[in-house]
From TrEMBL:
This protein's name: Rossmann-like and DUF2520 domain-containing protein
Species this protein is from: Streptomyces polygonati
PANTHER family per the UniProt record, alphabetical: CONSERVED HYPOTHETICAL ALANINE AND LEUCINE RICH PROTEIN (PTHR40459:SF1)
Residues annotated as domain Putative oxidoreductase/dehydrogenase Rossmann-like: 7-127
Pfam families from the UniProt entry: DUF2520 (PF10728), Rossmann-like (PF10727)
Source superkingdom: Bacteria
Domain DUF2520: start-end pairs: 144-270
InterPro entries: 6-PGluconate_DH-like_C_sf, DUF2520, NAD(P)-bd_dom_sf, OxRdtase/DH_put_Rossmann_dom, TM1727-like_C_sf
Length: 298
């Protein structure tokens, strides 16, 4: 006897906030066999993005999106999320049994309490990925970790949705969401700033194509850091080369004073980690920290 497994129920999916994340996740759910039935976007950029990634999906106000949806993605900026949820619940837009999903890294499901009280089923699914607003984002979801927070009864459903989007669920406790998000922001957002600063300085030094010079170096550094952690530290700070650090700071004050503060902050953090793991010898640390404390008048 052949047993035919039933496919999971297909859901009518709506998205409120057709930003980079919302459009990509809705498109991924569509590829998984769900039906994207409505979207809400205010800016012209959002509307064009919907046309490109969600062709044929009608645009309407948030209440209209929820009226059509079994599952609604609330993909608005973090600061706008609490007021949006409260407003939708108070106006009766949330239906009992409706899956209400937000993608904020900062929040767990507590921010969805107004929807829960209205009978909604709250899920927090945060893709740990940077998005461009183009079709490449859907491809990047393959193997992408998602920070998942949900009531215990909905955990399996939340993880199943992530898997359907080709992602990998990682359970995050409600109380740990802010720390989880801070960790990702330090790693991803600040990395962009550091790389952009480095490229600016290389241009100032006369390098025509900074990206070509940095690419192999940064790729190797990232790979080493992910594999080895602090053991991958290298460079003048980890070695305790105080005179080199002083020379760096003199050049930065002359050519790029706006980069001094970040250099000093990251050098001090690097020194602390190098000291803690024994890479930076204590006898070199004093001179190094002195160089980092130099106000530039010497």
């Amino acid at each position: 006897m052949v047993v035919v497994e039933e496919k999971p129920a297909r859901l009518a999916v709506g998205v409120v906030g057709v930003g980079r994340v919302g459009a990509a996740l809705a498109a991924a759910l569509g590829l998984a066999g769900h039906h994207v039935v409505a979207a809400s976007g205010v800016s012209e950029t959002s509307r064009r993005r919907a046309e490109n990634l969600l062709p044929g999906v009608p645009l309407m106000d948030p209440a209209g999106v929820l009226a059509r949806s079994d599952l609604v993605l609330l993909t608005v900026p973090d600061d706008a999320l609490p007021a949006l949820v409260k407003g939708l619940a108070e106006t009766g837009a949330v239906r009992p049994g409706q899956l209400v999903v937000h993608t904020s890294g900062r929040y767990g499901t507590a921010v969805l309490d107004p929807a829960l009280r209205a009978g909604g089923l709250p899920l927090a699914l945060h893709p740990a990925m940077t998005f461009t607003g183009t079709a490449v984002d859907v491809q990047r979801l393959v193997g992408c970790p998602f920070g998942v927070t949900a009531p215990d009864a909905l955990r399996m459903a939340a993880e199943a949705l992530v898997i359907e989007m080709s992602g990998e669920p990682e359970w995050i406790e409600e109380s740990a969401r802010p720390l989880y998000h801070a960790a990702l922001a330090i790693g991803a957002n600040h990395l962009v700033t550091l790389v952009a600063q480095s490229m600016d300085l290389l241009r100032e030094a006369g390098v025509a194509e900074p990206g070509r010079m940095l690419g192999p170096l940064l790729g190797a550094a990232l790979d080493n850091a992910l594999r080895s952690g602090d053991a991958a530290l290298t460079g003048p700070v980890a070695r305790g080369d105080a005179s080199t650090v002083s020379a760096h700071l003199r050049e930065l004050r002359l050519h790029a004073p706006e980069a001094v503060a970040s250099y000093v902050a990251m050098a001090r953090a690097t020194a602390d980690r190098a000291l803690a793991n024994g890479m930076l010898k204590a006898e070199y640390a004093e001179a190094l920290l002195g160089a980092l404390a130099d106000d530039g008048t010497r």
